[in-house]
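Backbone shapes recur. Consider a single case.
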Amino acid sequence: MTTRFPALHIGPLAIGPPVAQAALSGYSDAPMRVIARRLGAGYTVGEVWLDRFVVEASHGRRGRRLLAVRDEEHPCGAQLMGSRPEEFIPAALALVRLGFDAIDLNLACPVRKVLARRRGGFLMGQPDVALEIVSRVRDALPPEIPVTVKLRSGLDESPESRERFFAIFDGAFGRGAAAATVHPRTVAQRYAGRAAWAFLAEVKRHAIGRIVLGSGDLFRAEDCLAMLRQTGVDGACIARGAIGNPWIFAQVRALLEGRPLPPPPSVYEQRDVIVEHYRMAEEVYGPKRSGRRMRKFGIRYAQLHPQYAEVRAAFIATRRPGDVREVLRRWYADDLPGRWPDVESFGRMVEGHVECDD
């Protein structure tokens, strides 16, 4: 029997099916978000931005291009990270002026250099500072712009960290947050072990009517439905599992609607999406930078190709503008059946730009 899940709403934003693309540092730029929306994501969140960067970038033409929101993206959120409550305000206002529909506050990032600067997950141990950030941003923005928070289950597994989690969780909603996304690992855990979905279920029971989204270990469409069923959260936020596999959103939608799981995309389907992704990347970054950026995406797209190892190696070897097109010409010329991505490979992807994502 098909389980029916309610449509997701975040404040006044009507999301629809309860599946979203999470913020992905170094990845969830406009091209990735647009592809995700076209393939079924009801909501996307831009890559994690430092508050000071946003303020500086929003004053220049190139910076505004990097921060731009396309018409077909709405609703779309932007995620902010910083350490000083007062510095979040001008950044949040700039992002709203640029067209973002919601502001998500990152209190979760477990990267050591972020923690050393008293940002991200460091704030899970500082309830007063975390809640001042929520209050200041909520008070500064128009009421129709939702403010949301991204949390981990605590700094560590101590009782004190657990108490601080619920102090921040309850306090954020008390100060006007519209939703919370919870990744059920501690900051100290980073990505070790399995995400504690039982903690998500506990948080949702505690929430009593508040909107809670879950993140962590969502690498297959089936994982998303399992999280919704097992925990009762209002939505599933796919992070690492969406890099190079935007088709996961269409697959989740099919399962939500009681339809069979679609097959993996064929080589031609993959090629068409990669070509469009590259085209949009060139518009944003120019030929030279877009080639470097598409290299890391190509390595992940390769996981769906039937000749995964060879195609991955070909993307790794790209260096010059146009090399990505040569990979497409050579390896995507025949329309072969695709393959399911290697879940273990996604699970190990915790280095470099992806460390700050859940």
Remarks:
- The longest strand covers residues 76-81.
